[in-house]
Design goal:
173 residues, alpha+beta, NADH Oxidase, 4-stranded antiparallel sheet, 5 helices, 34% helix, globular
Length: 173
Protein backbone atom coordinates (compact mmCIF):
# COMPACT_ATOMS: atom_id res chain seq x y z
CA UNK A 1 0.00 0.00 0.00
CA UNK A 2 1.41 3.39 -0.89
CA UNK A 3 1.57 6.29 1.56
CA UNK A 4 -1.35 8.26 0.09
CA UNK A 5 -3.63 5.23 0.16
CA UNK A 6 -2.66 4.51 3.79
CA UNK A 7 -3.40 8.11 4.77
CA UNK A 8 -6.73 8.31 2.94
CA UNK A 9 -8.04 4.88 4.03
CA UNK A 10 -6.83 4.78 7.65
CA UNK A 11 -9.57 4.14 10.19
CA UNK A 12 -9.52 3.71 13.95
CA UNK A 13 -9.73 0.00 14.78
CA UNK A 14 -11.06 -0.81 18.23
CA UNK A 15 -11.61 -4.56 17.89
CA UNK A 16 -8.81 -6.99 17.11
CA UNK A 17 -8.42 -10.67 16.26
CA UNK A 18 -6.35 -13.06 18.36
CA UNK A 19 -3.73 -13.36 15.61
CA UNK A 20 -0.35 -12.21 16.93
CA UNK A 21 1.55 -9.52 15.08
CA UNK A 22 5.05 -10.78 14.20
CA UNK A 23 7.98 -9.18 16.01
CA UNK A 24 9.43 -8.06 12.66
CA UNK A 25 6.22 -6.15 11.89
CA UNK A 26 6.29 -4.49 15.32
CA UNK A 27 9.91 -3.52 14.69
CA UNK A 28 8.96 -1.95 11.34
CA UNK A 29 6.13 0.02 12.99
CA UNK A 30 8.54 1.32 15.64
CA UNK A 31 11.13 2.25 13.00
CA UNK A 32 8.44 4.27 11.23
CA UNK A 33 7.81 6.12 14.48
CA UNK A 34 11.50 6.86 14.80
CA UNK A 35 11.71 8.09 11.21
CA UNK A 36 9.60 11.22 11.55
CA UNK A 37 11.01 14.71 11.90
CA UNK A 38 11.63 16.14 15.35
CA UNK A 39 12.69 19.56 16.58
CA UNK A 40 16.39 20.00 15.73
CA UNK A 41 16.50 16.21 15.26
CA UNK A 42 16.29 15.80 19.04
CA UNK A 43 14.41 12.49 18.64
CA UNK A 44 12.88 13.32 22.01
CA UNK A 45 10.56 10.36 22.35
CA UNK A 46 10.73 6.90 23.79
CA UNK A 47 8.40 3.93 23.46
CA UNK A 48 7.25 1.19 25.79
CA UNK A 49 5.91 -1.82 23.88
CA UNK A 50 3.52 -3.99 25.85
CA UNK A 51 2.25 -7.44 24.87
CA UNK A 52 1.48 -8.82 28.33
CA UNK A 53 -2.32 -9.07 28.68
CA UNK A 54 -2.29 -8.06 32.35
CA UNK A 55 -0.24 -4.95 31.64
CA UNK A 56 -2.44 -4.03 28.66
CA UNK A 57 -5.44 -4.18 30.99
CA UNK A 58 -3.65 -1.98 33.53
CA UNK A 59 -2.79 0.49 30.75
CA UNK A 60 -6.48 0.60 29.81
CA UNK A 61 -7.40 1.28 33.44
CA UNK A 62 -4.75 4.01 33.71
CA UNK A 63 -5.73 5.75 30.48
CA UNK A 64 -9.49 5.75 31.12
CA UNK A 65 -12.60 4.47 29.37
CA UNK A 66 -11.58 5.44 25.81
CA UNK A 67 -8.59 3.08 26.18
CA UNK A 68 -10.79 -0.04 26.32
CA UNK A 69 -9.44 -1.27 22.92
CA UNK A 70 -6.16 -2.09 24.69
CA UNK A 71 -7.92 -5.03 26.37
CA UNK A 72 -8.23 -6.83 23.03
CA UNK A 73 -5.10 -5.53 21.31
CA UNK A 74 -2.16 -7.75 20.46
CA UNK A 75 0.17 -5.02 21.68
CA UNK A 76 0.16 -1.46 22.85
CA UNK A 77 2.73 1.28 22.64
CA UNK A 78 3.12 4.03 25.19
CA UNK A 79 4.71 7.03 23.49
CA UNK A 80 6.65 9.20 25.93
CA UNK A 81 8.38 12.54 25.63
CA UNK A 82 12.01 12.35 26.68
CA UNK A 83 12.76 15.67 28.34
CA UNK A 84 16.48 14.89 28.58
CA UNK A 85 16.65 14.86 24.78
CA UNK A 86 14.21 17.72 24.15
CA UNK A 87 15.47 20.95 22.61
CA UNK A 88 16.51 23.01 25.68
CA UNK A 89 15.23 26.35 24.37
CA UNK A 90 11.78 24.96 23.51
CA UNK A 91 11.27 21.74 25.46
CA UNK A 92 7.55 21.70 24.77
CA UNK A 93 8.22 20.58 21.18
CA UNK A 94 8.33 17.05 22.63
CA UNK A 95 4.52 17.07 22.35
CA UNK A 96 4.65 17.70 18.60
CA UNK A 97 7.46 15.22 18.10
CA UNK A 98 5.53 12.53 19.98
CA UNK A 99 2.47 13.21 17.83
CA UNK A 100 4.48 12.81 14.64
CA UNK A 101 6.00 9.54 15.87
CA UNK A 102 2.55 8.22 16.83
CA UNK A 103 1.05 9.14 13.46
CA UNK A 104 3.92 7.50 11.60
CA UNK A 105 3.39 4.28 13.56
CA UNK A 106 -0.35 4.33 12.86
CA UNK A 107 0.19 4.86 9.13
CA UNK A 108 2.89 2.18 8.96
CA UNK A 109 0.56 -0.24 10.72
CA UNK A 110 -2.19 0.51 8.17
CA UNK A 111 0.21 -0.10 5.29
CA UNK A 112 1.20 -3.45 6.87
CA UNK A 113 -2.40 -4.60 7.40
CA UNK A 114 -2.32 -3.98 11.17
CA UNK A 115 -5.14 -2.03 12.77
CA UNK A 116 -4.61 0.66 15.38
CA UNK A 117 -6.31 3.32 17.42
CA UNK A 118 -4.71 6.36 19.02
CA UNK A 119 -5.70 6.82 22.66
CA UNK A 120 -4.93 10.27 23.95
CA UNK A 121 -3.06 10.77 27.19
CA UNK A 122 -1.35 14.18 27.29
CA UNK A 123 -2.41 16.72 28.61
CA UNK A 124 -4.85 14.87 30.88
CA UNK A 125 -2.62 14.79 33.91
CA UNK A 126 -4.58 12.05 35.71
CA UNK A 127 -3.76 9.75 32.78
CA UNK A 128 -0.18 10.97 32.58
CA UNK A 129 0.41 10.32 36.27
CA UNK A 130 -1.36 6.92 36.25
CA UNK A 131 0.80 5.70 33.34
CA UNK A 132 3.93 7.20 34.88
CA UNK A 133 3.21 5.23 38.06
CA UNK A 134 2.31 2.01 36.20
CA UNK A 135 5.64 1.98 34.38
CA UNK A 136 7.68 3.59 37.16
CA UNK A 137 8.85 6.26 34.73
CA UNK A 138 11.53 8.76 35.69
CA UNK A 139 10.43 12.41 35.79
CA UNK A 140 12.19 12.98 32.46
CA UNK A 141 9.77 10.62 30.66
CA UNK A 142 6.31 12.10 30.11
CA UNK A 143 3.48 9.87 28.83
CA UNK A 144 2.18 11.35 25.60
CA UNK A 145 -0.21 8.81 24.09
CA UNK A 146 -1.11 5.17 23.93
CA UNK A 147 -1.73 3.26 20.71
CA UNK A 148 -3.48 -0.12 20.57
CA UNK A 149 -2.40 -2.41 17.70
CA UNK A 150 -3.57 -5.73 16.31
CA UNK A 151 -5.06 -7.35 13.26
CA UNK A 152 -8.51 -5.85 12.65
CA UNK A 153 -11.61 -7.77 13.68
CA UNK A 154 -13.69 -4.97 12.21
CA UNK A 155 -13.45 -3.13 8.93
CA UNK A 156 -15.15 0.24 9.17
CA UNK A 157 -15.45 2.09 5.91
CA UNK A 158 -13.05 5.01 5.71
CA UNK A 159 -14.61 8.41 5.60
CA UNK A 160 -14.62 9.88 2.15
CA UNK A 161 -11.61 12.15 1.74
CA UNK A 162 -12.91 15.64 2.23
CA UNK A 163 -11.68 18.76 0.61
CA UNK A 164 -12.70 21.76 2.68
CA UNK A 165 -12.17 24.77 0.49
CA UNK A 166 -12.78 27.20 3.34
CA UNK A 167 -9.78 25.76 5.24
CA UNK A 168 -7.25 26.54 2.53
CA UNK A 169 -5.82 29.97 1.80
CA UNK A 170 -3.23 30.82 -0.81
CA UNK A 171 -0.84 33.71 -0.34
CA UNK A 172 -3.13 35.53 2.15
CA UNK A 173 -6.10 34.94 4.48
Amino acid sequence: MDAIEAILTRTSIRKFTDQPVPDETIHTILRAGMSGPSCVNARDWSFIVVRDRGTLNKMADANGRPAEPLRGADFGVLVCGDLERAFPRAQEYWVVDGSIAAQNMILAAKALGVGSVWLGTWPQMNRVEALRALFNLPETQVPHSVIAFGYPAEHPAPRAPEWEEDRVHFEKW
